[in-house]
Description:
Elements: E1 10-13, H1 19-30, E2 34-39, H2 43-54, E3 60-64, H3 70-84, E4 89-92, H4 109-133, E5 139-145, H5 157-177, E6 183-189, H6 204-210, H7 219-230, E7 241-244
Parallel strand pairs: 1-2, 1-4, 2-3, 4-5, 5-6, 6-7
Helix pairs in contact: 1-2, 1-7, 3-4, 4-5
Family: Belongs to the short-chain dehydrogenases/reductases (SDR) family.
Protein name: Oxidoreductase
GO molecular function: oxidoreductase activity, acting on the CH-OH group of donors, NAD or NADP as acceptor
Amino acid sequence: xxxxxxxxxxxxxxxxxxxxxxxxxxxxxxxxxxxxxxxxxxxxxxxxxxxxxxxxxxxxxxxxxxxxxxxxxxxxxxxxxxxxxxxxxxxxxxxxxxxxxxxxxxxxxxxxxxxxxxxxxxxxxxxxxxxxxxxxxxxxxxxxxxxxxxxxxxxxxxxxxxxxxxxxxxxxxxxxxxxxxxxxxxxxxxxxxxxxxxxxxxxxxxxxxxxxxxxxxxxxxxxxxxxxxxxxxxxxxxxxxxxxxxxxxx
Length: 250
């Protein structure tokens, strides 16, 4: 059997039914963790991912949870602990992307409010709940975006602000939880080929040209970075932001 650094651990991956979340859930299962994932509406797809996790010889559960609702986010952690008995790893992956220029004639405030609720308030709620039940050696990783460092296109200021908030929280939370032996880090993506940002389409060539490597990243490459940060070899890494961006921020 291959080395499984996360054997016996329990991980929660929000938004784990697709894209980076799905790849991360499967990678953590490969590394030996029992994995809980969340979804909002795609129950069939979530069950499929859970089945693929179990095929790796570990336990899996899929929970319906809308991260835009802080109460649901907090209750989620209770459900995970009830099902698995503990929580060692939290990957804050769920997120949405909404654009809108500051000088637009009309603003879709409902969409903007939901973006903030999912990308910031929901992450805070889940992390607060997880921090209460994690023990020494706990790992928290939030999936951010290079948009948190720069806004390369018009109309993404609100999205960029939500991702910048996550890196700020990461630094602060690392100070809060460091004395308890819990690490907190962030991984920032650029152009990763997912349903939200496929590597085909009207803007794909532009995005490729902005990366030093000249290509899109794969969800599995994000998952590899996350797997390192939640593993035993990253025990002295906290408060850090790792760019998995193909050189976008070079």
